[in-house]
Amino acid sequence: MRKKEKAKAILETLAGLYPEAHCSLDFETPLDLLIATQLAAQCTDARVNIVTKDLFKKYRTAEDYAAASLEELEQDIKSTGFFRNKARNIKECCIRLITVYGGKVPDTMEDLLTLPGVGRKTANVVLSTIFNKPGVIVDTHCTRLSRRLGLTKSENPEIIERDLMKLIPEDQWANFSHYLVFHGREVCQARKPRCGSCSILPYCDFARKKLE
Ligand code: SF4
After folding, report:
1. Within the chain, which residue ranges are assigned CATH 1.10.1670.10?
2. Residue 73: band (very low, low, confident or very high) from pLDDT cuts 50, 70, 90
3. What are the angstrom distances between the C-alpha of 7 and each of 16, 155, 171, 180, 190?
4. For this structure, is 76 an active site residue?
5. Which CATH class is domain 30-129?
6. CA–centroid distance, residue 209 to ligand 1 (Å)
7. What is the pLDDT of residues 143-180, one digit of tens each?
8. Does the domain spanning 3-22+136-211 belong to CATH 2.40.50.100?
């Protein structure tokens, strides 16, 4: 089966399994999502959602984060891990939002990538979820599943993003990313993939090699 046909079959199967798949970070405003996505680095979305429940009540605007003391912000996000780096980046990111973008979250990849702490993953989450623009979101689940399924050979997120962009229709880029997250959590876990109950087993290189 050609790679593109395989990707199409995987997309259709997962779309049937997870019609409700969506970004699982809680947010109300574009700024909330920008911050939540930064906090989600090396942390689960569930943990981030616990932390942001109070955080988003306390910090409502870019000005609020920019004016906060670094020590206080660090304490407020501590349980998401890597809190010193994250706090510094969030503060600097919000200062740039105020000075360059009038306190608003920009809507292009180019502009988002100029913000401290914002990489392509965060930018694609914001672009697809807030601005309805196409974007492949390469997180740990997307990386693991894309490699197991044989849709990419790379471990480099930028190359994985490019490989998936070639295989998946543009209007499904974000959905496909969400499907992989849902399937990664429910079936294809990192340590113990449940291949015996997996609906996309027929398309999976990892499972085929295991059976050989
Ligand atoms: S067959 Fe196994 S390794 Fe392949 S996607 Fe399914 S659970 Fe993951």
Report:
1. 3-22+136-211
2. very high
3. 14, 18, 14, 12, 21
4. no
5. mainly alpha
6. 11
7. 999 999 999 999 999 999 999 999 999 999 999 999 99
8. no
